[in-house]
């Protein structure tokens, strides 16, 4: 199935077909939402990389002369703290910028871990079949049966709260999706002629798995990985909010929200801004993922 | 049909045993001696410690312990909470109706808005309405619902003062629990003040919990409708001269609903994830909040029993959805 997905746009045009990548890019460009998502992500990445230069204040140092200062456009606010300060006098804008660094790191690290492990497990299940496949897939079914956040919470409860453990928990929760995709793709690929040809030519199992089959299973994995980043950021923030993820004073957005809860009545900005940051980031990755899927899967076009 | 049900059942049993094994192993992995954890900071003298170890079977090999755990399980014994000393299963039983009440209302809310929105978006494809619905539903799908809850509290409870901030009902009302669902119990008791109070407590959590399912249902309905509207029989129905609404509401919708029903069934797990967060924000006395409190108090029997029960419930609901799907769609039944 995957090979068709990748090859159809090329084969459907007689004469000199455009390179698959340029075809992909022209499809992707036509999708306004996807481009918007990409732009937001690029900006976020730049902010995260340049956080130390861009952020006007330290994200952790407290200043006890400026508690709960409102944003600059409200009375009592000042341009020195453009988005106001939190309950112990830290600049919200600086914390949000450094939080972007954390959230992107969480998203990328969690998904990388999950995709790599999941793909290997899926390849193994798809290639070896039999008992190994049953064992792997049963385990994944069980993981999928438990509500994702509940499973993550149980894992964090065992490992202890903290950013690293929360990331590990979310990676485990996301794992079954990649295993399933990789296995399904492998099973549909191995019976194809090019795999048989490689086998006849004497390619070993590992070469077959990683050099022949894997590149042809890449499209659905890439799409799922992009959408997975948004899930990872959201789940990690939820764990942070429940006090099980990143611990204060780390400027993680979910943790910031947990700190801000008690000030709902007095200071709207400490509550609204971190959540808005989460929403915008997650939305951007979802838009990008949808756009990638549409551009990579010609069946959904038209 | 019977064969279909049996095939599905035979898949469920190993999954359930797997869940018990997973929960058993996970709780075993928690570092530290369970008896000392139970005793807390006061400590425990060695004689009593040994006695308790025997009593709980911790001196047995792990496999025997798992067997003991399973046998207690089939007798409905999920252990006792370390904090309240109540049986886990009875605590779960008293709190679960609150979670169901909230979840059912949330799903109804999502259906009432999501279905029409999806249908209209599909019928008026590429209109402003369509783009609006899709944009809003993608936003809803990306929403960190714990923040969404705080925003609604900020607006409706703090600024406007329309709804209460937390809990299920105002303190002055006491309703004898009959069904455990406050809305139903209040009506049964004929107490409309209590009913209104319960309803006003329910509105915000319902919206918060319903947001993600709403987005999913709207998107799913739209794409299912679009697919069906392209079918030949729709063209035939139109060619026969049937009124526009009749083609949409009767011919198209019926077939489009099949995938939507499945998606709703599969939302149970998502709904529970949401319930944990929603109940925590609104102090809603359900099982989600109970589990979070269990973790904060290191009440491992609660965590273990609660996780197992929820896993079992999700599994059963998925099974029922599967069977119902086989009932409404004979094609599925025969392909397996």
Brief description of this entry?
The complex is a heterodimer of chains A (302) and B (336). With 302 residues, chain A is mostly helical. Chain A has helices spanning 2-11, 20-29, 32-49, 51-54, 92-128, 130-145, 148-159, 163-190, 193-200, 205-213, 218-241, 253-260, 268-296.
Please outline the helices and strands.
The complex is a heterodimer of chains A (302) and B (336).
Chain A (H helix, E strand, L loop, with lengths): L1 H10 L8 H10 L2 H18 L1 H4 L37 H37 L1 H16 L2 H12 L3 H28 L2 H8 L4 H9 L4 H24 L11 H8 L7 H29 L6
Helix pairs in contact in A: 2-13, 3-5, 3-13, 5-6, 5-8, 5-11, 5-13, 6-8, 7-8, 8-11, 11-12, 11-13, 12-13
Chain B lengths: L1 H27 L5 H6 L6 H11 L5 H13 L13 H36 L4 H14 L3 H15 L22 H7 L3 H38 L2 H8 L4 H39 L4 H10 L3 H29 L1 H6 L1
Helix pairs in contact in B: 1-13, 5-6, 5-9, 5-11, 6-9, 7-9, 7-11, 8-9, 9-11, 10-11, 11-12, 11-13, 12-13
Describe this structure in words.
The complex is a heterodimer of chains A (302) and B (336). Chain A has 13 helices and no strands. Chain A has helices at residues 2-11, 20-29, 32-49, 51-54, 92-128, 130-145, 148-159, 163-190, 193-200, 205-213, 218-241, 253-260, 268-296. Residues 1-13 of chain A have low confidence and may be disordered. Chain B is mainly α and 336 residues long. Helices cover 77% and strands 0% of the residues of chain B. Chain B contains 14 helices and no strands. Chain B has helices at 2-28, 34-39, 46-56, 62-74, 88-123, 128-141, 145-159, 182-188, 192-229, 232-239, 244-282, 287-296, 300-328, 330-335. Chain B starts with a helix and ends with a helix. The relative contact order of chain B is 0.14. Chain A binds chain B through residues 33, 138-139, 141-142, 145-150, 153-155, 157-158, 230, 234, 237-238, 241-244, 254, 257, 261, 264-265, 268, 271-272, 274-276, 278-279, 282-283, 286-287, 290, and chain B through 14-15, 18-19, 22-23, 26-27, 29-30, 138-139, 141-144, 146-148, 150-151, 153-154, 158, 269-270, 272-273, 276-277, 280, 291-292, 295-296, 300, 303, 307, 310-311, 314-315, 318.
């Amino acid at each position: 199935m995957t090979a068709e997905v990748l090859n159809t746009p090329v084969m459907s045009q007689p004469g000199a077909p455009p390179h698959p990548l340029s075809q992909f890019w022209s499809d992707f460009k036509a999708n306004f939402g996807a481009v918007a998502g990409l732009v937001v992500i690029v900006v976020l990445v730049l902010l995260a990389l340049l956080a130390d230069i861009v952020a006007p204040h330290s994200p952790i140092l407290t200043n006890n002369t400026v508690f709960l200062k409102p944003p600059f456009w409200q009375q009592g606010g000042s341009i020195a703290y453009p988005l106001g300060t939190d309950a112990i006098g830290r600049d919200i804008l600086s914390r949000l910028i450094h939080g972007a660094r954390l959230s992107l790191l969480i998203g990328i690290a969690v998904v990388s871990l999950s995709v790599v492990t999941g793909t290997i497990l899926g390849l193994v299940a798809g290639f070896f079949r039999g008992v190994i496949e049953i064992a792997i897939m049963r385990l994944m079914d069980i993981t999928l049966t438990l509500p994702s956040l509940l499973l993550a919470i149980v894992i964090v409860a065992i490992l202890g709260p903290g950013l690293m453990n929360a990331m590990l928990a979310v990676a485990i929760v996301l794992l079954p999706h990649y295993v399933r995709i990789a296995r399904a793709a492998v099973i549909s690929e191995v019976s194809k002629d090019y795999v048989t040809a490689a086998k006849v030519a004497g390619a070993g199992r590992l070469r077959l798995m990683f050099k022949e089959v894997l590149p042809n299973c890449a499209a659905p994995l890439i799409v799922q990985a992009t959408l997975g980043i948004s899930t990872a950021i959201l789940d990690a923030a939820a764990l942070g909010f429940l006090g099980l993820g990143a611990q204060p004073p780390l400027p993680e957005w979910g943790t910031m929200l947990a700190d801000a809860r008690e000030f709902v009545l007095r200071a709207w900005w400490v509550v609204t801004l971190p959540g808005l940051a989460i929403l915008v980031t997650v939305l951007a990755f979802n838009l990008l993922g949808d756009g990638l899927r549409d551009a990579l899967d010609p069946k959904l076009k038209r | 049909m019977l064969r279909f049900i049996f095939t599905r059942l035979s898949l469920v049993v190993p999954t359930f045993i797997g869940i018990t094994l997973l929960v058993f192993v996970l709780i075993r992995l928690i570092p530290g001696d369970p008896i000392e954890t139970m005793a807390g900071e006061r400590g425990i003298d060695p004689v009593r410690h040994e006695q308790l170890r025997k009593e709980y079977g911790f001196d047995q090999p792990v496999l025997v312990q798992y067997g003991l755990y399973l046998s207690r399980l089939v007798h409905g014994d999920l252990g006792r909470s370390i904090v309240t000393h109540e049986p886990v299963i009875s605590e779960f039983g008293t709190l679960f109706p609150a979670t169901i009440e909230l979840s059912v209302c949330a799903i109804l809310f999502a259906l009432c808005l999501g279905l029409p929105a999806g249908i209209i978006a599909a019928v008026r494809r590429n209109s402003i309405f369509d783009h609006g619905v899709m944009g809003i539903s993608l936003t809803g799908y990306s929403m960190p619902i714990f923040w969404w809850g705080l925003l609604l509290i900020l607006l409706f409870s703090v600024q406007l003062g329309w709804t209460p901030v937390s809990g299920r009902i105002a303190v002055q009302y006491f309703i004898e629990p009959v069904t455990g669902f406050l809305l139903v119990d209040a009506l049964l008791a004929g107490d409309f003040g209590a009913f209104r109070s319960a309803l006003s407590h329910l509105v915000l959590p319902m919206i918060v919990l319903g947001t993600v399912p709403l987005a999913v249902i709207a998107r799913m309905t739209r794409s299912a409708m679009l697919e069906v509207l392209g079918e030949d029989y729709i063209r035939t129905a139109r060619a026969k001269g049937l009124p526009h609404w009749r083609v949409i509401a009767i011919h198209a919708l019926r077939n489009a609903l099949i995938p939507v029903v499945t998606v709703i069934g599969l939302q149970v797990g998502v709904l529970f994830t949401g319930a944990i967060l929603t109940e925590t924000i609104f102090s809603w006395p359900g099982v989600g909040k109970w589990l979070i409190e269990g973790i904060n108090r290191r009440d491992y029997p609660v965590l273990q029993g609660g996780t197992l029960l929820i896993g079992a419930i999700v599994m059963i609901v998925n099974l029922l959805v599967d069977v119902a799907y086989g009932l409404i769609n004979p094609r599925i039944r025969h392909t397996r």
